[in-house]
Design goal:
single chain, two-stranded parallel sheet, 2% strand, globular
Length: 191
């Protein structure tokens, strides 16, 4: 087992915990749908975060050629999955009795500042991560990567600041479309 294989275990566990939280939250929503006030914007953010968890797992493989792993590099690489895990925890109320009433719209707006502030940090860490893989790697991603990073970060910071429901409705859909498009442009292959 090489260093990448060894270290990828913990990265995979943290990402899997985020996926587990999202899937458990969806399962709880489905089981208790009679006691849950579903909010479509919240549902789109569930999909957005789940796609991001998958993409993060997918692109982590790009570290496989790193020859020398230091503790600090490992901790840095662990930050992105941790951000996504924390975002998954904020997206759902604490797990509890299925009989408890939950209004997901109220929950969404009560936690939107923390959710988007944390989620926006993923972009900052991702840019640093991309630069650590080398300037040629960063440049190979081209304008789509730079433009999408600016759009992700500015959109999430705005979502953290505003409670404007129209903005949140627009941005949830925009983020989903942007993530799907940029994933097909930049992440088609595992290499």
């Amino acid at each position: 087992m090489n260093a990448f294989e060894y270290l990828s275990v913990l990265i995979s566990i943290v990402l899997a915990l985020g996926m587990t939280r999202v899937l458990a939250g969806v399962g709880e929503m489905m089981q208790a749908r009679m006691h849950r006030g579903i909010y479509w914007v919240h549902v789109i953010w569930i999909v957005n975060l789940f796609i991001y968890l998958i993409v993060a797992w997918w692109i982590f493989y790009r570290w496989r050629n790193q020859q020398e792993w230091t503790f600090y590099l490992f901790v840095f690489v662990l930050i992105s999955p941790t951000i996504l895990y924390l975002a998954s925890m904020l997206l759902f109320p604490r797990e509890g009795s299925i009989d408890n009433s939950v209004d997901y719209k109220t929950h969404y707006y009560a936690n939107h500042r923390a959710f988007f502030a944390i989620f926006s940090m993923f972009t900052v860490v991702d840019i640093a991560d991309t630069l650590l893989k080398g300037i040629p790697h960063f440049l190979a991603l081209g304008k789509p990567y730079i433009i999408s990073s600016v759009l992700y970060f500015s959109g999430m910071v705005t979502a953290a600041i505003t409670r404007n429901e129209r903005y949140h409705q627009f941005y949830a859909v925009f983020f989903l479309v942007q993530t799907i498009v940029i994933s097909f442009i930049l992440f088609q292959t595992l290499v």
